[in-house]
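Quick check before the chapter quiz. The format below is the same one you will see on the exam, so make sure you can read both the input and the output lines.
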Amino acid sequence: MFKEIAVDAQHDLLDVDHLLDDEERAIRDTARLFAQKRLAPHVAEWFESGTLPAREIAREMGEAGLLGMHLEGYGCAGVSSLAYGLASAELEAVDSGLRSLFSVQGSLAMYSIHANGSEEQRQQWLPGMAAGTYVGAFGLTEPDHGSNPKGMRTKARQDGSDWVLNGSKMWITNGSIADVVIIWAQTDEGVRGFVVPTDTPGFSARDIKQKMSMRASVTSELALEDVRLPHDAMLPGARGLSGPLGALNEARFGILFGTTGAARSCVETAIEYAKTRVQFDRPIAAFQLTQQKLADMSLEHGKALLLAVHLGRLKEAGRLTHAQVSAGKLNNTRVALDIARTARTVLGANGVSGEYPVMRHANNLESVLTYEGTAEIHTLTIGRALTGISAFE
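Here is the expected output.
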C-alpha cells in the first residue's frame, strides 16, 4: 500500500472531510496518491490516442488493494461502502474511464460472483480478480436493448449437461481484455447469469472505435456463437433480473461518488486558472461574474458530495433503496456535467485544450449520464417510488 498523504481541504467549501473517520480518510488518500502519481500524468495521452494499458493498470490497482475493495474475503480488502465510494471519486477525478475499469471489475463482475456465485466459482475467480491478474467484464447491454434488459435476445439453452449460449452484447467495458465475462442470457426459466471464460470457443470481442467520450477506456462488442459451457458455469444465486440489477446498483453507487471526483477536478482547475489568468491587468478571479461561477460550482460540488456521503451511510446501515441510488446517480451526474461545462467557460479557449482536464471530463460525463441507467430511467425510478405507479411500460 502507499503511504498516507495529507489532502488539501482548500476546495472543500462545506468541510465534508469532517464527516469522515480516520480510516475513510486514509483509504481516500491512498486512492488519491495512486490516481495522481500513477494515472494522472498519462491520462491525457491515453485519451487522445484512444488507448489504455488496462491490464497493467488492473494489476497495479490490485496491488494497491483497490479491486473489489468493498467485498469480504477471497483476497478483497473488505472496506466500508463509503470508503469504496471515496476511492471511486479519486479515480474519476483523473478520468471516468479509469473509474469504469475499477467499478466494472469490482462492482459488476466480482460482485456478481461474490453475491450470486457458487463457492467453487468464488474460489476460482475472485482472488485473481482482486489481485488484478484476472480482468472481468459484465455483459448485459445489447445492441437493441439497453434500458430494457427484459428484451435481451441472448439465449442460453441446455444441451445434455451443458449450456450453449448465442447472442451479442454491446458497450462492454473491459470486454476485449477480459479473462472472464458475466453474461446474462434468457433461458426457459428466465434471465440467468453465466461465468464465461473468454478463451471458450465461440466467444469473441472487438473494440468499439471512433468514441468521442470514455476514450481512456476499453469498450467492446461481444459475440457468442454456440459458446458451450459446463452446467456449473451458471451463477446459482441469480434468478431473473434481480441478479444484474443488484450488481448495477453497486456500480451506480460508485458512480454517484465518482462523479463528485470529476466535478472536483473541474472546480479546482477553474479556480487555479482564474487566479493566474490575467485580463485587463488583473486575474479573472477578481471579476464578479467569474467569482459567481466559482462559487456556484463549489457549492454544487459540495452538495453533491454531501448527498453521496449520506447515501453511503444509509448503505452501511442497510437502508439504501433503489430509488435513493437513482436519485444520487441522477443528481450527481447532472451536477458534474454542469460544473464541467461552466468550468470550460472560465478557461475560455483553453477549456477545449487537452492540456487541461475540463473538456475531457465533460466528454466523459456525457457517457456517464447515459450508462448504467439513463437520466430518463432514473427519473422514472424516482417517479415510481413517489407515486407507486410504473411509467416504464
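If your answer matched, good. Confidence is low (pLDDT under 50) at residues 1-9.
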